[in-house]
């Protein structure tokens, strides 16, 4: 290997570490500051002391939240909503993606593109007509639909199903057609092809879609603020804002603590399933 080539590789390695370091600093600074703030008392937060140092660390903010019935209710509501949304999303997206990628029919390509295009519509444009639709149904039927956490289980799939279907269409399309053709020749039905061949092979894509659906339903703020406004019906993002911000008074210690605790479930899921998530998104975005 020539000296010039070694020099170029060394230079590229150095610049790679420089950019990775900058990336880490930029993205790790906010959670680090949140953690430091969560260990402070309100008096220390409002003082003029160094914001990046804790002079008198305390776990009072954590104990206050973990013993708060309201916060535990928010956490429980978020967990139930997220698990239910994931189940509904997978029950719809997997068969839809399989049908659009393998059971070719007239208009299937346009339908697949339309599924993804619906995801591109901002939720800020969707929540107003959705709100009016549910308000109309409530007035017409007399059934109270608004201001219940379970209504989010019906609404969130409008955000998760299109994207998850699109991701899995791409992943299913990357699977060799010879596999399902051989299974069909041997007498297997389409349901058996899906459950016994496609799902095991496409597991990274399914996991990527599952993580996406969970993250959206866990972290979304706009829909919970519009559709579930009572304290006992709120989920975590809306509940944190509604209970820890009173007018222009911000309880920063508990806000940062609540945000960190709320970020823990998605963080744990990403940590254990990161390889599957990256593989699923990569294949789903580049195939088909």
Topology:
Elements lengths: L2 H36 L3 H5 L13 H7 L2 H34 L5 H12 L3 H19 L9 H5 L1 H17 L3 H9 L4 H12 L1 H17 L2 H6 L8 H9 E2 L2 E2 L1 H35 L2
Antiparallel strand pairs: 1-2
Helix pairs in contact: 1-14, 3-14, 4-8, 4-11, 4-13, 5-8, 8-11, 8-14, 9-10, 11-14, 13-14
Features:
288 residues, MetI-like fold, 2 strands, two-stranded antiparallel sheet
Please tell me about this protein's structure:
The chain is mostly helical and 288 residues long. It has 2 domains: 1-58; 59-286, MetI-like (MetI-like fold, Orthogonal Bundle), CATH 1.10.3720.10. 77% of the residues lie in helices and 1% in strands. The protein has a two-stranded antiparallel ribbon with strand order 1-2. Strand 1 (245-246) and strand 2 form a beta hairpin. Helix 4 (69-102) crosses helix 8 (157-173), helix 4 (69-102) runs antiparallel to helix 13 and helix 9 packs antiparallel against helix 10 (190-201). The radius of gyration is 24 Å and the shape is flat. 30% of the residues are buried. Residues 284-288 have low confidence and may be disordered.
Relative strand content: under 5%
- If helices are DSSP runs of H or I spanning 4 or more residues, what is the number of helices? 14
Strand order of the largest sheet: 1-2
- In the predicted model, the low-confidence regions spanning at least 5 consecutive residues are 284-288
Structural class: mainly alpha
| Bulk shape | flat
What is the helix/strand order?
A: HHHHHHHHHHHHHEEH
What's the overall average pLDDT, rounded? 82
CATH third-tier fold name of the largest domain: MetI-like fold
Q: How many discrete domains? A: 2
User: Which radius of gyration do the C-alpha atoms yield?
Assistant: 24 Å
| Largest beta-sheet characterization | 2 strands, antiparallel
- The count of DSSP E runs of length 2 or more, i.e. the number of strands, is 2
- Name given to the CATH homologous superfamily of the largest domain: MetI-like
| Second CATH tier, the architecture of the largest domain | Orthogonal Bundle
- For the record, give the distance between the C-alpha atoms at the N and C termini, rounded to a whole number: 40 Å
The share of residues in helices is over 70%
Can you tell me the CATH class of the largest domain?
Answer: Mainly Alpha
